[in-house]
Amino acid sequence: MILSTVFLFFEIIMLPFLLAVLAPQLIAAFYARQIGRSFWFWFWISFLLPVISIIILLNLPDKTEITGER
To answer: Domain count of the chain?
Structure first.
C-alpha cells in the first residue's frame, strides 16, 4: 500500500514537476545543438540563467551556415 502510494505520488505530482523544471534547459540545449553550438554547455548554462540563456541563443549566429554542416 505504501509503495503504491509513493509511485502514485511520483507519477502524478513529481514527474510533471521535474519536466516543467527541466523544460528551459532542454529547450536551450536542443536549440543550441540545432544551430551548431554545444548541447551540454548550453544545458548547464541554462540552469544558471534559464530564460536569459534562451534569449542569448536566439541572438547568436547560426554556426551551421558558416561551416556548411547539418
So the answer is: 1
Position 15 in a domain: no
- 47 in a domain, yes or no? yes
In a domain, 7, yes or no: no
CA-CA distance, 58 to 32, in Å (whole number)? 9
Which whole number is the average pLDDT over 12-17? 80
Residue 11 lies in a domain: no
- Look up residue 4 and give its three cell numbers: 503504491
Predicted confidence band of residue 9 (pLDDT cuts 50, 70, 90): confident
| pTM assigned to the model | 0.72
Contact 28, 53 (CB under 8 A): yes
